[in-house]
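Side project, low priority. Logging it here so it doesn't get lost.
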Amino acid sequence: MSKTIIVSNRLPISLQHKNGKFEFKPSAGGLATGLGSIYKEGENIWIGWPGNDVEDEGQRKEVVDELIKLKMAPVFLTKKDVELYYEGFSNETIWPAFHYFTQHINYEDEYWDAYWNVNKKFCDAILAKASDDDTIWVHDYQLLLLPMMLREKLPNATIAFFQHIPFPSYEIMRMLPWRKQMLEGMVGADLIGFHTYDDMRHFLSAVGRILGLSNESGFIQADNRLINVDAFPMGIDYEKFEKAALSPKTQNFVKKFKQTLGDQKLLITIDRLDYSKGIPNRIKVFEKLLDENPQYRGKVSMIMVVVPSRDQVQSYQTLKEEIDTLVGHINSKFSTLNWVPIHYFYRSFPFNELSAFYSMSDIALVTPLRDGMNLVCKEFVASKTDKKGVLILSEMAGASKELVDAILVNPNDQEGVTSAIVEALSMDEEEQEMRISSMQASLKKYDIFQWVKVFMDRLQFVKEKQADLESKALDKKIIAQMKKAFNVAKKPLLLLDYDGTLVGFKGKPQDAFPDEELKVLVAKLAQRCQTVIISGRDKETLGAWFEGQKIDMIAEHGVWLKRKDQKEDWILYAEVDDSWKEDIRKVMEYYVLRTPGALIEEKHHSLVWHFRKVESGLGDLRMRELFSHLKYMARGHNLQVLEGNKVLEIKRPDINKGRAATAMMKGEDYDFIMALGDDWTDEDTFKAMPKNAYTIRVGYTYTQANYNIKNPQAVRELLKSLLE
């Protein structure tokens, strides 16, 4: 029976060695809570690093046995692994790059090697538990290579990936020497999720520019698979925070803390120690507030919780020293005998004490310089059961896309953040209630459980869509059937498109000439059956490339015909008026001037705008502009605009490959017909074929053809198999 496997760098437990025994403390984190509904069911399991290095084999067995009871399985990492893979590549290379702190990126080959090796360890641990019909959900930036490693071993498995931190723009991504391998690793998944549309957009841009994989509405065509990329904003366990805020335990802490602090307006900030959180900026803003607004001195305090993180790393030690110095400076500058501006805690707090901080604070100041989602702001809003309070939120946090009723600020704009605090301190209760109520309604609806459900539902949808396409995929049984039909046929016919079907695409159209293997293959096919190259290429190019071959050729989608047995040159297959060309050419030339790398190919009865060599993104943008422009002009000339693979072609609608193929087959009694093509121009051919024909589209996309095939190399293998 199929199962679901959750995979993350850390298991949702903390492992401690006490009195010669291992103790396991479950994590109270939101992700563990949300995914509990999955990994605790049936045969499902969570796989990850338990958090400690366990070298002794006997102790490892003890850990494995204990974790089985918790529906978990460990990936054991050495101290060296943790140092190079986790502290190294994950947190000194990926983390700063993906958070736009390029000055902190460490480009160490040793780190990369460790990262690859640990991803492989995770892969091996999963393969020991997984089968081809399982669902595997991989989490976060420490395991970017894992989806493709799994795909290569379990081609039919359902694999999902979710990234919890931001994904950077192409400009940042291309700085990394290992960018290609990282992206290739991610596209091993069937569904790739991010917190925000911006992250999704950046990823698609990087995949397009670095891997050359285009997308349509968030769907990527990669080899023989359809991959969906989407945004899934992560929620919190709303009910947990709401209940905690109302609990007697929390309320006792509130009472105790308020007695200590007196009658104060309270700002709360809670962060892990990290340069992406903008903690020094926030402290400076608070100083600016007190400098410029003396009326708040003695009446406003900030509770600042900084959770220790990586404080053995020099850059984090430096950050900690800066925070300590800034807090000390402000407290010494403004403190009185009965008032301290900043209550600074460098430690973590038990859940109910945190809940008390949220509940009693008037303002939450959540101003990271860059953050994937940031759940602190959501926890604060959920804890405001009395509907009183103001959230000041950084535009750079993923949550800002949802919590639009917060006061949104640019964390780099000290003046703007200071003004936001003043606005929050003077906001009337009615507006506070309106804003908090609106945000609470959203958070209740899109909580952590809904996030899990939406993600898993989308994964099922993607697999159904893939199955739809794969149902048309050529398999051994169909190929054997084709081969048998071909061998017994008395009068077989092959209709073959050229670009994208017999050869792959090239940067320059003239570079896609037939290689020796293809020439030999076509010659052999021509000896066994009537072989027709039916292409959008011009007649001069086709004629030169296949000179001397005993094949029929149809050029420019059906304008020209050259019979294998005719001595005369090409004959005009369709009379066409070309008077429209001058107007259209001028428009195309205008777009060439605006688009470096674009070029115009002029055929006898069509014009083609090529943009394969144009910068990714710009090419698509200009193509859409030109498409709209040509569509408008086409009406007046009775023309058709066709979108191909990195090309836009304009021609008369009554000239197409289907019309040409029909004319060629007229009066003939073929007992085997096979038509192969790769783009929309070939759909006319497929439509024109009789029902018993074998029609095959190259690439996995929706088509009128009966079957799909992977790529030009697979086409050649198919054609070779017919001759065996």
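Brief comment: The chain has a mean pLDDT of 91.
Revisit when time allows.
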